[in-house]
């Protein structure tokens, strides 16, 4: 048995900001994916996944049935039979490994589920987001529900505010384009929960709250607008500002060995780095106006191009 594939995602803009109602833009990243699978003889890795699914099933039993109902008996019997989540999505890398798993479980075991083929009204999108938020909280302590939503629908999602989200189109890829979005591998696994805790602690300080509102959210919103409208010049101007703000105010979320490189990108204008997900490790997201030049400068790092434009 093997279920349908669910893809990883990249939040291009909006990390941390969306907690405080900034805009956000999330796109599917088809390079990585996962699916539910069943085997009798489980490898060490598959057994770990199977054990985790067991705990997840118990957690799902406690979710308010007025929000979502699952066929828990069927789920548990499949887990007993050796079901696990077979995934190429790296964990702790900010590309939605738990999101894909949540989407797969909802797809297979939710009763009266909202399907991808329906006319996805804003109400339905918000309902799905609320369900996924509740489900994914098992993994992160607090989840916006966006990662599973993106994985489930496999289309770009524009977050206008907490209760205003819509499926969107993004400018089509230009494979020849020199402008690019890329991922850098930090070589470290990041954990979401501790990073979110640091952020919430910082939010208690008035200075940090003001910076978030007046600078971080302002430039995040502008980046989303610029990207969707194809205002390339303005996009890079705002991304540079965003990169600076993150370096100055989100240092704990940037692995220490990348602080200098981050600064170098801003000073040389060759590339601008930003957090991919909650940070603390995993991938770092990069934007450049000249991907070939950036590749040369970053030749010591593992770089994956996500999108050319």
From TrEMBL:
It holds the Pfam family GHMP_kinases_N. It comes from the Bacteria. Keywords: ATP-binding, Kinase, Nucleotide-binding, Transferase. Residues 83-147 form the GHMP kinase N-terminal domain. The keyword Kinase applies. InterPro entries: GHMP_kinase_C_sf, GHMP_kinase_N_dom, HddA/FKP, Ribosomal_Su5_D2-typ_SF, Ribsml_uS5_D2-typ_fold_subgr. SUPFAM superfamilies: GHMP Kinase, C-terminal domain, Ribosomal protein S5 domain 2-like. One of its GO terms (molecular function) is kinase activity. The keyword Heme does not apply. This is Mevalonate kinase.
